[in-house]
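To assess whether the prediction recovers the assembly geometry, we first specified each molecular entity separately, as shown.
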Amino acid sequence: MGSRQQITDGNETRGGSLVLLLHAHLPYCRKPKHPVSLEENWFFEALTECYLQLVRVLDRLERDGITPRLTLSLSPTLICLLGDQSLLDQYRRRLALAEKIAERDAQSGEFQEAAARQARFFAETRHTWEERCGGDPLGVFREYAETGRIELATTAATHAFLPAYQARPHIVESQIRVGIDCFEKTFEHRPGFFWLPECGYFPGIETMLEAAGVRAFGLESHAITRARPAPERGVRSPLRCPNGLVGFGRDEAISRLVWSAAEGYPGHPDYREFHRDRIHELPESILGEWLRETGVRLPAGLKYWRVTGPEQEKALYDARAAAARAREHAEHFLEVVRRADRDDGGNPDDGIRFAPFDAELFGHWWFEGPLWLEELFRALSRQNELVPVTATEAVAGCHRPAEGCPAPSSWGDRGDNSHWINRETDWIYPILFEADHRLRKLLQRHGGAPGNSPEGRALRQACRTFLLAQASDWPFMIRAGTAADLAVRHMEGLLGRLRRLLADLEDGRIDRKFLSECEATDRAFPELKVDHFTPARHAGSGSPEKSASIQPRRQTL
Amino acid sequence: MDNSTDTHFEIIPVDPHRFLAFWKLDPELLLRAENVLGIPHTEAGWFLRAFRLADPGHGPEQAFSMQDFPITGSRQETYFALSFPGGFVSAVLGVKDRNGRFSPLLRAPCVALPEAPESGASAEVHPAEEVPAPGDETAFGTIDDTNALPEELRHPPPAASESPPEPTRAPVSRLPETPALDEGMIVTAALSGKHPSSVRAEKPGRETPERSTFPAATGRTIGRGSHARCRLASRFDGESGGAPLALRGALAVEGILRPGQRLEIDGMEILPRMDGRFTWTRPLEDFSLLWSLLTEAAFDVTASSALDSRFSEFLLRTLIDIEGEVRDPDYRVYLPPGIRPDASGRFRLIREIGPDFDFIPRIAPLTRSVAAP
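The predicted structure of the complete assembly is given in tokenized form:
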């Protein structure tokens, strides 16, 4: 990774830096007994519309000699999904089928042009999947990272909302350790940047991150603006914690341009409509194998219409107009950031704008998102006022960071923890805390069991299931009311399996058939080490100033 | 192995004011604990005592404020609302004897309450200072695994003997029974400015103006006497769902006891710190009552920021603390003048209830001073 001077190739720069981060994450959910599940379909949709489109964007930029300096965070659960060969085999079949349906629909006449365009999109994506990636997009990202064009980062093992577990530091620590372990095995280096799931920060977590070799992490805006002391320049100042780790605060003003449902770019009438999918309108004669493969009309990405407006009636999509709009919006974004820099008086030394986004927004929710991203990097390359840098480059180039302690916070809708801990979801945590208590006892009892013994396997599977049950995604969905029933069922399934595994271990009677089923269903982190779950010399919940020396106050009366 | 009897006590931070606590206590263990602590089971009241700490490394003796919440049940999951936001919070489960002396049993590890983004909440009268906690918790700890009672619990905890000296006190004579302090009574008295016993009927509220654009009705009213009906909520979470307005509030009494003074609020004796300061809060949850408090005359009273001596020799101040969220912008017009939500629709109002509001029947002196201040 180069310093700021290397980045600008000696050109004088007048503005600040832009750290653009895409956080790619999907919850781990496998349903081996079903032909295909909605959760697995999320993965297929994201592969087609997001991750493979990102590969294409990077390739086009590379071809034109543009180095994007993008930071791409890949969650460990997504890494596991992208490494699951049976899932990838299923994906290959699904993509080919989708292409075939679009071709058939093009021949049917009603939406000939739109369907033909969709078929071309699937064909190009299949080509990227097969020829460019060889079925392994992680390999392409690794390749780009090795040449310094992008930076790869990661997050907690199963994207747990970590502030919920601050009273049990070993849980937080196991999330960090397993996450980084998974990343390191895949990419052969440790990440310098760590994405705190949901921007959930609590004092003391930086000590655990430091122990894992992390140098920087992302925060919500008010973690910086309400830091103690608060930096004068707000989120433009990276915040150096007392232990030396640097936190970047999300620049809400510029993020809103992309994120906001009301004001954001993705809602523009020219962009592709997300909700209407032709799959629900096609006759069975056209769907054919699709229905035999999936059993139901799961979303297929056959989207022929544009947003048009709030009305129900949607006009047909105009790809050329949408592309022009994406270019215009990329230039607008750049101009807004530069203008904000100028309004702030500019800052050639260390002014940083941190703009993190969910990667799945780009392509899935906002079909033109990858194109916007590409146009943004092209526009950035044509000027030198604002410099794109990766997260760790920003740390290296930051000579005058503010110093202080971030405020406990998240990027939930009120900036606190209530989106994950509330009356709809609070039943989850007592079960997990009790499971933790039992698991710790079992680790003491069976921790030395050989890995291939029934006890060793059951213990490892219990640890795996325990991690998966901490994912922030399910409480998020329950609270948001999106697929809430599915999320509740999924949580109940996970917690049920966890309880039974723990009970079997406690009783010393391992049900091998049940264990095998669990291993087939919850198969993330195949090389999971149970010693990652052993409470270590962690600091506990503590203030950054003292957290390194604070031991949990756990005395008996 | 059955783990259903394992004792534990955990807290999880939720928002700047609240944490979720859950505990499971073995009933047999509790009985034994009460006995070894010298408190008969029938006379023991169970409490969760929350401490606000400046630093997670601090012990309860260094807490700068605390709140007590009566609890029931050996196994429970519930939310606790603190009167002051943010900071580090630790909590202890314990019992109080008939004199209000608190004996700690289980301590949950300290957690950091999250902070909310800056809000444009109306700047009202805030408490002049937070009330420090009594420093009698030095022996607190967590029972992490209590298949057996910790050894120390088999004897009276040293905390009892290490408690700061309390003010000299005269023999306590029990007060005559007074009506329970309920939410409606607080609001009624606050709105009328009179003792509840003299309030004959609820004061009709100022009518909320009717507008043709008012959102669809589902049955509850905004305030008393209101014609406008809509979906409302009294909490921010859970049942409030898609409600357009949410409120939560608390009544807080804070003050200073002089040496020899003793005070009982809602049937519980106040245990002040060495310097005599204390605080006490009571959550208010009913939406329509909170709405009345927010909109009506109680807040027209000119507030005083100094502690006053309205209870003869007692220095007390009573505050209403209401937090709100307007989720549907159409509802902003119903807010009373002076309430200015921030960009996210949130606001907060902290107002002192005027000096003449001797409205809390359960605030009463146990005895008069026996020593000169």
